[in-house]
UniProtKB/TrEMBL annotation:
It comes from Chloroceryle aenea. InterPro entries: PTTG1IP. One of its GO terms (cellular component) is cytoplasm. This is PTTG protein. The gene is Pttg1ip_0. The chain crosses the membrane at residues 59-84. The lineage of its organism: Eukaryota, Metazoa, Chordata, Craniata, Vertebrata.
């Protein structure tokens, strides 16, 4: 089917997707489906056209390889970055949690210390005015008698 477009134009040949245009002898040939890249005995890669006439097969292969390489590299970089972020985000809450627990414990201890100091101060005032019942002193006055 493609050989009938030989000696015509590249555009006419490439309207059929299964055809390959060779500029060396202006022939339209069936694309070798069994091998992905056509052999050089059929037509050199720099003179072969497939899909569009303005880019040769060699440049098309290089462009596709570069684009595929860029996609693979970007996917790899994204995966590594995401794994790094995930690991970092998992460790960060633990550190923050520990820091918050330490601060909470410090505040609790300071609160207990202040409460103890207030109790001592109030006990002194109660002793001074005789409001505190000393259990140590056996001679203390009994209020209920």
């Amino acid at each position: 089917a493609c050989s009938q477009f030989s000696q015509s134009s590249c555009e006419e040949c490439l309207k059929n997707v299964s055809c390959l245009w060779c500029y060396t002898n202006n022939t339209c040939i069936d694309y070798p489906v069994r091998s992905i890249i056509p052999s050089s005995s059929l037509c050199s890669l720099s003179n072969a056209r497939w899909g569009v006439c303005w880019i040769n097969f060699e440049a098309l292969i290089i462009a596709i390889a570069v684009i595929a390489g860029l996609i693979l590299v970007s996917i790899t970089v994204c995966c590594c970055y995401c794994c790094y972020c995930r690991r970092r985000s998992k460790s960060r809450p633990d550190e923050e949690e520990e820091w918050l627990a330490r601060k909470r414990e410090e505040r609790r201890l300071q609160s207990l210390q202040r409460m103890h100091e207030r109790k001592l101060k109030h006990d002194e005032i109660r002793k001074k005015y005789g409001l505190l019942q000393d259990s140590d002193n056996p001679y203390s006055r009994f209020e209920n008698e």
